Amino acid sequence: MKLRPIIIDNLALMICGDQEYSGIFPYRSSSDLTDFFRRINLRHIHSGQTRRYWVRDVLEQLNIGENASNNQLPSVEIIHVIEQLLDSLEFKQNTDREKAIILMKEMVKPEGYTLDFDNFSKPKLKLSSGVFASTAMDVRKAERLITFAPEVFKIPEGSVNNNQIAVMMPFSDDFNEVYTIIRESCESVGMQCHRVDEVWKDSAIIQDVFDLIFTSSIIIADLSGRNPNVFYEIGIAHTLGKFVVPIAQSTNDIAFDVGHHRVLKYSLDEKGKIELKIKLQLRLNTIKQKFENGSRGEKTQE
Prior knowledge:
The chain is α/β, with parallel strands linked by helices.
């Protein structure tokens, strides 16, 4: 499994000991970088290019490889880089291995990985037993990571699908045309959307609602008519840290608790439907680029 570009960029800075990682990871000169890769049997010799760019290029090459033993893990070479980076022998005076370990754990957790240490304090990258559901937060900036165990819902076995969008709206023929516009907007940016009435996995519909929200990267919520189910579902999405795109036909549909968020207002005349489709495409493209770039630091609504 390939690591996202933002992870590769941060790994490069960690290896170099540059920018926000200065004083935590050791600073490595050009010759030090060559030695670092040699210690894990990789023959990459620094070419004179800007250090962090050269390291990033090397990591991108290593990131292409497959892991024959477990295709859910990154390439063996990338794993060796991460483990070597945290090896106690790599750290010198004026560095902070404990903080480096914390930063690495926080960075790899959204990817589904964790770090274990053997009896000799050697780090090992492994698949996490937990699931990271949030799509709208940058875990590196989080003050606390919260583990929750809901009693009303069961945690789905599936993970978050970055190309899946959950649509929350009233189940009424009046909204079928709106849903068609939403579906076309999603497809135009290479994503798929689903409503819970298209899903039947559990005997309790609310469990299917939770599953759909949990495994989706974006939630589009139509507030029109102030449907209480939709607001309940928005609450679930916010708690799970999802990107929520609210839409509504009138400002009167926007309840007080979500009134401070930006809402995409639309009308059902021909001009309004066209505008809704265009604005949704723009918003979805913006969020999709954040996924691709690995930046998850914006608020759940705008």
